[in-house]
Design a protein that fits this description.
Low-confidence stretches: 1-11
Oligomer: single chain
CATH class of the largest domain: Mainly Alpha
Distance between the termini: 85 Å
Length: about 220
């Protein structure tokens, strides 16, 4: 006797949006945004095209949802890290920044993040809206968290007073180039491992920003 299986999408309806987004990301990265089709995304997600369109109106809606999901994961983790650390004295700033940097590097260097980053850059010349979405939903939201922390450290007297946005971008840029070398250029250099990289980057960064204390 043959047992008829229920369709995949009726067994786990709560997981359906994430499964569709996972499939969309796979198709976008493999085929490029322009060549990706809603039909192929539906096939990989195990849903009908009609059901796919009930959740997402088209490819731009899918890309926006992917980027927002990434932003929620990254900013949520950073905020939880800050909540776990709590408020501390200015002297603890290097420790706080090191913990935040480790969490940020973990997300930046993740294949999922790098995949969307490459997609936004690679398709940006033809479809600038993709780059704008990624910048607005991910880059700016992460920047807001870090500039707030840097501004606080400056008010506490732990860091020199400079433009906190510039300070954040210098910090993020160091980690981004290392993440690109690791994930995009496939480097296997040992110094790109977080446990080796982060303390060195923090040392370089803070050597230019820490307020010198009189002995």
């Amino acid at each position: 006797m043959t047992v008829k299986r229920s369709p995949r999408w009726t067994r786990r309806p709560a997981d359906r949006p994430d499964e569709i987004l996972d499939a969309a990301q796979s198709v976008f990265i493999q085929c490029g945004y322009g060549s990706a089709s809603m039909g192929e995304i539906a096939r990989r997600a195990g849903v009908s095209p009609g059901l796919l369109y009930r959740y997402f109106r088209g490819k731009e809606a899918l890309f926006l949802a992917l980027v927002r999901r990434l932003a929620e994961r990254v900013t949520g983790e950073l905020r939880r890290q800050l909540g776990a650390q709590g408020a501390g004295p200015a002297a603890d700033w290097p420790t706080r920044l090191t913990a935040l940097a480790a969490r940020m590097y973990e997300h930046i260097s993740h294949p999922r993040t790098m995949g969307l980053f490459q997609l936004a850059l690679g398709e940006g010349h033809r479809l600038p809206e993709l780059s704008r979405i990624f910048y607005r939903e991910v880059v700016q939201r992460v920047e807001e968290i870090f500039t707030a922390q840097i501004s606080q450290a400056m008010r506490e007297g732990a860091l020199r007073h400079i433009d906190p946005v510039v300070a954040h971008r210098a910090f993020a840029g160091m980690m981004l180039i290392c993440a690109m070398e690791r994930r995009i250029f496939r480097s296997r250099r040992r110094h790109l491992r977080a446990e080796t990289l982060i303390p060195q980057l923090i040392g370089v960064y803070l050597s230019g920003l820490l307020v010198e204390r009189q002995r």
